[in-house]
Amino acid sequence: xxxxxxxxxxxxxxxxxxxxxxxxxxxxxxxxxxxxxxxxxxxxxxxxxxxxxxxxxxxxxxxxxxxxxxxxxxxxxxxxxxxxxxxxxxxxxxxxxxxxxxxxxxxxxxxxxxxxxxxxxxxxxxxxxxxxxxxxxxxxxxxxxxxxxxxxxxxxxxxxxxxxxxxxxxxxxxxxxxxxxxxxxxxxxxxxxxxxxxxxxxxxxxxxxxxxxxxxxxxxxxxxxxxxxxxxxxxxxxxxxxxxxxxxxxxxxxxxxxxxxxxxxxxxxxxxxxxxxxxxxxxxxxxxxxxxxxxxxxxxxxxxxxxxxxxxxxxxxxxxxxxxxxxxxxxxxxxxxxxxxxxxxxxxxxxxxxxxxxxxxxxxxxxxxxxxxxxxxxxxxxxxxxxxxxxxxxxxxxxxxxxxxxxxxxxxxxxxxxxxxxxxxxxxxxxxxxxxxxxxxxxxxxx
Length: 447
Description:
By secondary structure, the protein is of the alpha+beta class. Helices cover 69% and strands 9% of the residues.
């Protein structure tokens, strides 16, 4: 074997290894936004690249599609091992990457073949080292085209698919993977006929157009899905907000009834005093004591157990306290509603109601508890709510909110409503976990 031939073999070998490594990098970029931490996505991409390189290096070499299937399966296993949430979404990522990788590589291969025809013609073949130099240039261009096409495809998918932290249902998985599976099937059919008939030229153009349309079909399907999902979440948000408004109206009716009863009691207070004076004047102390006891009980029933300085907050906290007591949850409240501020009681009620609902859903442990603190410090109103939680709180780094744990996908709308209200007052939400306690801090600028 001559030196030039050896260089050709080494270049061909190395270029394929590099191409496999580049595909692994693209896989890591693709899946990282969906994982808990960028390092987990990098691990999946590394395992994919190493697996593909090993399958290529070690004999006997297997069919390309089977090799890429094994590599994708290995990456899927790593994703599941590193982050066991949302398995359906990981299946979606694996199938889409498998398809996008084949489609982009096939388009790059057609471009590469065009350069082969133009640059590596018979006249140049006689000049061995020039021929080899052009071959190296074509291989580099092929790797670049393959990388750019795959990178652009996966970035377009990631931009289009915004529901990265939402649970993917099976029907959604089927809808989103059908275009990818169609693209893979189409590639296999085109490739089979191309090998059998040895057709090139115009047939390559048709193949390129089909692969491009397949990638666009994947993107369009994801965009349509995302628009539908966004519309669904907006509708759920409106329904949740309407439900909360109705709850607040119920609380207001309860307050009106309470104040009506208090006014009635005040109206009758003169009669009560006169009756007590009459009983004590006739030395009926036993009857007077019994009368006072009944009056005391009536007053205790009317006087709220929780006094925040705002009747709506009183009713919300009282309702949640009763719910907590029924479930055996210790409920502590030190809530002081700020006076003379621009705060809207409705906005605060949205935050408080959603925060307590989330606490009621997540609280657990041997001695479950919910603790509420609210106070004003200069121009800032702080609301701090903690609850016992034996588990691991997973935070979405993109928006700072906890990842959803409900398969329905409805969970998280309340948190977004809380964040929306906080931003209205130039504030923010902060979630943190300290051992077996989760705390959310809400800061609002009120002056």
